[in-house]
Amino acid sequence: MILVTLGTQDKSFHRLLAAIEKEINCGNIKEKVIVQAGYTKYDSPNMEILNTIPKDEFVKLIEKCDLLITHGGVGSIFDGLKYGKKIIVAPRLSKYHEHTNDHQLEVVQELAEAGYILPVYEMKELKGALKQIKKWHPKTYQSNNQNMINLITDYIDHNTGKFFFKKCKRK
Fold first, then answer.
1. Facing residues of 119 across strands?
2. How far apart are CA 88 and CA 72, in angstroms?
3. How many Cα atoms sit within 13 Å of 152 on the Cβ side?
4. Is the terminal CB of the chain with fewer CB neighbours within 10 Å at N or C?
C-alpha cells in the first residue's frame, strides 16, 4: 500500500495527486493508494482520498505502508523516517501557489543530500523515482531527541540555582 500525505497546508497540492493518478493509469503504480489530502480537493476512482485522518489511524497507515509519498512538510517526512519507510518527497512550490515560500524545497534538498529521502522537484520525475525506490535503501534515521533532552536537563540542573538566587537578590 502507498500512503500519500499532503499535510494540512491551506493551499491545494493538486499537482502531486494528478501526477500519481497519471502513474496509476500508466501502470507504474499497482498498489492500493490512500491519500490524506487536507485542503486539496481531488476526485479519483483509483485512490482512496480522505481529508483528514485521526493521528492513531494515521500512525497505523504509516506502519502498514510500503511507500510514503509526501509533501515537503517536516512532520510528514519525520513520521515516515521514524518508522523506517522509503519516502518520495515532492515539495510544495511557491511558483505553483502551493505555499507562500519555498522552505519545503530547502528541507527536501537537505534530506535528499543526506540520503534519507528521494526527491521529486517536478512531477515528470515521479516515474523515475517510483522505479528507483524499489532498489533504493534510505539512510537509517536516528533521533537525536534524547541527546537534546539530556543537554537541557544538564543545563537546568547546573544553572537553575544561579537564576533563582539572582531573582531573589533583586527583590
1. 89
2. 10
3. 6
4. C
Smallest CA-to-CA distance from 9 within 43, 49, 36 is with 36
Strands (E), the chain: 2-5, 33-36, 48-50, 67-70, 86-89, 118-119
Residue that is written with C-alpha cell 515528470 in the block: 124
Cell of 12: 491545494
Q: For residues 121-153, b (16+ Cβ closer than 10 Å) or e, as one string?
A: eebebbbebbeebeeeebeebeeeeeeeeeeee
The pLDDT score that the predictor gives to residue 158 is: 67
Q: Is the pTM of this model over 0.85?
A: no
Residue ranges of the chain whose pLDDT lies below 70:
144-153, 155-156, 158-171
| Cβ-based burial of 159 (10 A; exposed 0-12, middle 13-18, buried ≥19) | exposed
37 vs 53: CA distance, rounded Å: 9
